[in-house]
User: What shape does this take?
Amino acid sequence: MRNLLNIAIVATVPLLLAGCELGPKTSGQDGYRGTGMNSIALNSSATTDDVPAPPYELPAAGGTTVGEAYENVQVLTNVSEEEFTYLMAAITEWVAPEEGCNYCHNPANLASDEVYQKVVARRMLVMTQALNSSWSSHTGQSGVTCWTCHRGNAVPEASWTLAAASKKRGSAAVRQGQNMATADTAYTSLPGDFAARYLLKTGDADTIRVASKSMHPNAANKLTTMQTEPTYALMNHMSQSLGVNCTFCHNTQSFQSWNQSTPQRATAWHGIRMVADINGNYITPLTSVFPANRLGSEGDPFKVNCATCHRGKNKPLGGAPMVKDYPALKGPTAAAPATVAAETAPAATTAAE
Assistant: This one.
């Protein structure tokens, strides 16, 4: 009887483990046998999502510019009036399909900035142009549009704000973001404040690296186990957001070695800094523009992370070409507020995060 019970338990364990999987996956060998370079990806990560078609055929270039035709146009000044209308129709579907034009505009005075969404949208247009021109090291040839993040929602579904500050920091009962399984950390108990540490402003990413070259602490190596946990939380977030495992970017022989890593690691390196640029230089400065209901518990606006665009795919929307039908979003068409220039990824032999 005991043997039968043991057999039943052994037979049941694989079923229980299989039930923990979040979706069907595909495994493939990327490196030499024995190197542990098996890549595992969600099957959905290889599919292309539906992307709204352009509102109508792209108007021919030329004609009266929108800067000549309308008042208070500050970003798309040199775009033709017809292309401007074409782009506005697309943005309406991307961001506010139910509310329509009135979501950003006072219908009685389209030039007015009294609707706060218009001020935000203007800054987001500048940001989108910068992502397609200055951050092509991450956005590639596909580029991005408002749909990449918004998907028909005024506020992107995947976003984050600062965690509520603890009022009892001396209490052992306060978890301080630790030991709480959350979706952002792939349901681990790792710190949930990794985005605030690394994705809030440019320069934060420089603290990600926790690789040690020695076994024991010394004058050059004072990293603690606790200091590695936010980095692992960020890596888990990236893995889940892209629907891939660690070897999508890293070689398990040496996670820190750049010359053994895959090309995707350099793309991810730029992506981390691009997200920090978005949050630090475009979204956070708009804090005073947003009303209270569009702010988190700590008074900060909703910000982006890897999941905002990727949604479980290693390429957002399955790599669908986003910007090809919207030339006005490919780069600045007039003087616009400056952004931090995209950085250069570390050389292949540089030890970095």
Observations:
- Strands lie at 25-29, 38-42.
